[in-house]
Amino acid sequence: MQFVESGKFFVARLIDKAGVDRESHCALNSTCKKYDDNYRLTIDYFDGSLNVSDSKMLVESVGKYFDENGVLCYKRFCADLKKIYDSLRLQTRKQQ
After folding, report:
1. CB 3.0–4.6 Å: which of 35, 42, 51, 68 could bond 29 by disulfide?
2. Distance of CA 17 to CAs 37, 45, 85, 88, Å?
3. Tens digit of each residue's pLDDT, the chain (96 residues)
């Protein structure tokens, strides 16, 4: 069993397939205040090979990710998630 902080909904270990580099970690944290239209998604990333960590926050309207029936638009959410994850990984590589 693993204790995860409030608001964190995803914690992952990214293991190097070759087994050469140390493993990296990624955590997703979300917050949405009551009666607020803005949704905040924070990604915390630790690169094990470079021993560097960084985080990035995305603030968007809740209406961007849900249609008029209240169904999550998965492709939109994943596209934004992938965009900030890729930019965060690139940013940590540049810190080297």
Report:
1. 42
2. 41, 18, 20, 21
3. 455 567 888 888 988 777 787 888 999 999 988 899 999 999 999 988 888 889 999 999 999 999 999 999 999 999 999 999 999 988 888 876
